[in-house]
Amino acid sequence: MDEPQSFDFRRFHAQHRVAMIVACSENGVIGADGDLPWHLPADLKHFMRSTKGCCVIMGRKTFESLDRPLPNRLNIVLSRSMSDEGGNRDDGVRVAGNIEDAIESALASDMEMPIWIAGGGDIYQQAMDRPGLVDLIVRTRVYARVAGDTVFPEIEANRWDRVRCEQFPADDKHAYSMDIEWWVSRHVEN
């Protein structure tokens, strides 16, 4: 395994068009009552560094769980009930009715690649149900079994290859150990 310092993850990510980024427990849980079931600063830092300068697509509930729109990103919210006020919002937020419209909006922006899908569970499932839509999954595997009401779909071994894994032990700031894994679609050449 390469040393973390030698892996240019931003360059690697930029080779992909649409990616998913997620943290899930061993039993697939990503959320509990509209919030994360853990506090892992290294994972949050990884998420922020990975998505900075890019478009981030998320569902309305995920967006509403944030204190504010993610800075230095175009936040695209999938919702049938929210309005983007005719596309005139100046807070870095756009609204789309479906994943295809969200991706079209992202492609029309001047943001960096990839376009990130960042939850929630229904949005991840919609993306997984469209073979060929997503070509990269960056998953933080949290070594815990937690209760929750939102899960990440199973990564199908016949469609994806794990190409990299970085391990992080539990410590005084992280109650659980975790691995950050990079999965590439078998239908993509790197």
What's this, in brief?
The protein is of the alpha/beta class and 190 residues long. Helices cover 21% and strands 31% of the residues. The protein has a single domain, classed as Dihydrofolate Reductase, subunit A.
Overview of this protein structure:
The chain has about 190 residues and is an alpha/beta fold. It has a single domain, classed as Dihydrofolate Reductase, subunit A, CATH 3.40.430.10. It is about 20% helix and about 30% strand. It is built from five helices and ten strands. The chain has an eight-stranded mixed beta sheet with strand order 5-4-3-6-1-7-10-9, sandwiched between helices. The protein has a two-stranded antiparallel sheet with strand order 2-8. The longest helix has 11 residues, at about 40-50. The chain starts with 8 loop residues before the first helix and ends in a 5-residue tail after the last strand. The model has no long low-confidence stretch (mean pLDDT about 90).
Keywords:
190 residues; alpha/beta; Dihydrofolate Reductase, subunit A; eight-stranded mixed β-sheet; two-stranded antiparallel sheet; 10 strands; 31% strand
